[in-house]
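Section 5.1 Outputs to date
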Amino acid sequence: MPALHTLLDFQFEPGGPKNPLSDQAVYRDLCTLVSGLVQSGGAAPLSSVSLGDSGSLDVFTAENGSHATLRVYPQGLLTVDAEMWVAEGEQPSITAEHVASTQQKINELLGCKKSKRWVYAQCISSFKTVTQH
C-alpha cells in the first residue's frame, strides 16, 4: 500500500462565532489538529498563505515525507487533505481511529453539523466515504 490519502470536509457557519478566518485561537487549534494528522507532536508548517477574500491555505510537512493541507473558504467550507507513504507490509501511522478522532475534534471546535471523510489507499484501490451528522 504505497500511498494513503485522507480528505476531510467540514461545513461551518461563516457568520458564526467559530469562524477560523476571524478567530485566531480557533485557527491555531485547527493547525495543531491538522499537523497532528501526519506527525505526532505536530508537523512543521511549510507554508501559510492568506488568500484575501478567498480564505486561507496552510501546508504542513512531516519528517517522514507526509504532508497535510488545511484550506478554509469564507463561504463556510473547510477541507483537510493528508497524504503519506506507507512501505509495503507496514501499517500506516495515520490510523482510521486517529482520523475519526481528529474529525470529531474539528467538528466540536467549529460547531459543525455535518462533515465527511474520504480515505483512499492507492494500491488497494479502496475508496470509502464516511459522513458524520
